[in-house]
Amino acid sequence: MRVCHVVEAAGGGSGQVVFELARYGLEHGDDVTVCYAPDRAEAGFVAALESLPRLRLLPSPMHRPVGLHDFYDGWLLWKTLRRAGPFDIIHGHSSKAGALTRLAGVFLPGTVVYTAHAFYSMKPDTPAIYGWLERILSWLTPCVINVSKGELEHSRGLGIAPSKLFLVPNGATPHFSASREQARLALKAKDGQILCGFVGRLEAQKKPLRALAAFAQAVKLHPQARLILIGDGSLREEVEAERIRLNLQDHCEMLGACDARKILPGFDCLLNSSDFETLPITFLESLNVGAPVIAPPVGGVEEAIIEGVTGFVAQDFSEKALGDALERYLSRSAEQRQQMSASTLQHAALYTAEIMGEKYKILYRALIP
Fold first, then answer.
1. CB within 10 Å: which end of the chain, N or C, has fewer?
2. How far apart are CA 355 and CA 20, in angstroms?
């Protein structure tokens, strides 16, 4: 097959999925191209793609904000794909690239498919027009791929035709650049200390202040707990100020933007506090290091969390509910937490990059006329 992946937000979880799909396709004999927005591409994402033999990389500008420039960006994308094609499958990833790909695909040969990696309409208080646009754009493709059961339910709520909806959960490669011992040594973890990790952008969607408040509640009863925050963003100063206000300096450390794969193996659990998710790669990476997930009832918890076995789900999105869920984990004995870690590692085997790649390959073949 000749497959082209189109991605605008070239980094983070969607970037990792694109990389894994490109790698899997190449290893199984496909001709694979990745078209990306150079202004939005993280250096690590591009470097990872450049390491893949026989992969063709095509830059094409795509701007994140919605505006008149989208018509020009769509035209440039059409020209790029027309010159590089024809393709059997043109796969648009995330909202902006997905929209431009579906519009350009009307005038191109090949089957266009779309994975949202979290619809923008999932964001709380989002204007209804974004949901309407997703429903209208769904008319331009035979396939809208959802990466979690929660996202699939959202797609149905948008009014997208059921015949177009497919579920292919995300997968991750269990490869980390440090062992648990090395990671905990780098974090200067003390014996008996329980390391709770937060991994994500310090932005409104991820609600890092909710994570701080939940941890502040739980640490009062469990002083052996320590919170490690990985990530950067516009809320960094606010998070730092709140950390001081809550007097968490001795129990909470902010590492900023860094390679989480060097740190994750040292975590005992992952603390997620987002307003919305699909099936974030951080969930899957945590499973792969044996770290149970503590999270609000966001998308992806149905796949990642078996209550009391691979993690705990908060009753709602409040700070107290998330703190209560974290307390349920911290209250477990060392032996019980070790058993949860073993169960988490077993559960991770259901969500590998290989399983994801094979499901996409089967779906691609079924969609080619």
1. C
2. 11
345 in Cβ contact with 287 (< 8 Å): yes
**pLDDT tens-digit series, residues 204-257:** 999 999 999 999 999 999 999 999 999 999 999 999 999 999 999 999 999 998
**Structural domains of the chain ordered from first start:** 2-171+352-367 (3.40.50.2000), 180-348 (3.40.50.2000)
Identify whether the C-beta of residue 49 lies closer than 8 Å to the C-beta of residue 19: yes
* Contact predicate 31/2, CB 8 Å: yes
Determine the Cα–Cα distance for residues 271 and 121; give it in Å rounded to an integer.
24
* Integer Cα distance of 251 and 105 in angstroms: 52
Stretch 95-120: mean pLDDT: 93
- For 275-296, the pLDDT digits (tens) are 999 999 999 999 999 999 999 9
Region of residue 171 (left: phi > 0; alpha: psi -120 to 50; beta: else): beta
pLDDT of 175 reads: 81
The whole model's pTM is what?
A: 0.90
DSSP at 262: G
